[in-house]
Write a structure and sequence with these properties.
Helix 1 packs across helix 3, helix 4 crosses helix 8 and helix 7 (178-218) crosses helix 8 (229-255). The protein has helices spanning 2-26, 56-60, 75-94, 98-120, 125-138, 145-171, 178-218, 229-255. It is built from eight helices and no strands.
Length: 257
């Protein structure tokens, strides 16, 4: 019975992940995410519903369009499986509560932002700006509360804005896009000011580590642009599930209490 309770959220998340794939593909192109129905990005042929089953549809098609046989990106089942896993993990943590559905919507937005930023190096305002407002309004139903949410918005947006302004002043070039600033403000709306701090620290550490590794092994110049949004999303994800434990561990280590 317990296994079934986990499977159901996973299936629900995977179905939502199928829609997120549509958002990831269409939002940067300015295409409606509602109409027309799903179709092959190469030949434009509509995808029948029986091939649109999350994860399994990709396996049945062997990763190719049924019509033109063009290979389909492995990103599609990856996003579906990832979203399903996130839904199952949230269910384990929050059960059937308002926080479950609110945080699932939040993480779904982060999934879309991550894959768009990885490909296009942009974070669409259509996700982050409404996310700030929605996060603040729904924070009443979350552990952070409205006050922490408001502080998180100001701290998140203000911190990255200050860093971006300082970098521009010193380096005479932009080092961080406005999309990252708005994204951290959205993260602050859902996770509060503690979430902003943990997200920024973890995101910066992961970004620096992976960025330096990429520069060393790929032989790219030091100015090669690396999107910061995915690292902020990963930091927010870690905080959502382990933030309190990390903060308590740090306090114990710092104070010796």
């Amino acid at each position: 019975m317990a296994d079934m309770l986990i499977i159901l959220p996973f299936i629900f998340g995977a179905v939502v992940g199928s829609f997120l794939n549509v958002c990831i593909y269409r939002i940067p192109l300015g295409i409606s995410v509602v109409s027309p129905p799903s179709r092959c990005p190469s030949c434009g042929t509509s995808i029948p519903f029986y091939y649109n089953v999350p994860i399994f549809g990709y396996v049945i098609l062997r990763g190719r369009c049924a019509s033109c046989k063009t290979p389909l990106s492995v990103k599609y089942p990856l996003v579906e499986a990832l979203t399903g896993a996130l839904a199952a993990l949230l269910f384990l943590k929050y059960q059937i509560t308002p926080a479950l559905f609110i945080y699932f919507a939040f993480l779904s937005a982060l999934v879309v932002v991550t894959f768009i930023d990885l490909k296009y190096q942009i974070i669409p305002d259509v996700i982050s700006l409404p996310g700030v407002i929605i996060g603040l309004l729904l924070s009443y139903f979350l552990p952070v509360g409205i006050i922490d949410s408001l502080i998180g918005i100001l701290l998140g947006g203000g911190t990255l804005f200050g860093i971006a302004a300082a970098y521009l002043l010193l380096a005479k070039t932009e080092g961080m896009g406005g999309g990252d600033i708005k994204l951290l403000a959205m993260i602050g709306a859902f996770l509060g000011w503690k979430g902003v701090i943990v997200t920024l620290l973890l995101g910066s550490f992961m970004g620096a580590f992976i960025g330096m590794g990429y520069i060393l092994f790929a032989g790219k110049g030091s100015r090669f642009p690396i999107p910061f949004g995915p690292f902020l999303a990963c930091g927010a994800l870690v905080h959502l599930f382990f933030g309190d434990a990390l903060i308590n561990w740090y306090i114990i280590r710092a104070t010796g209490v």
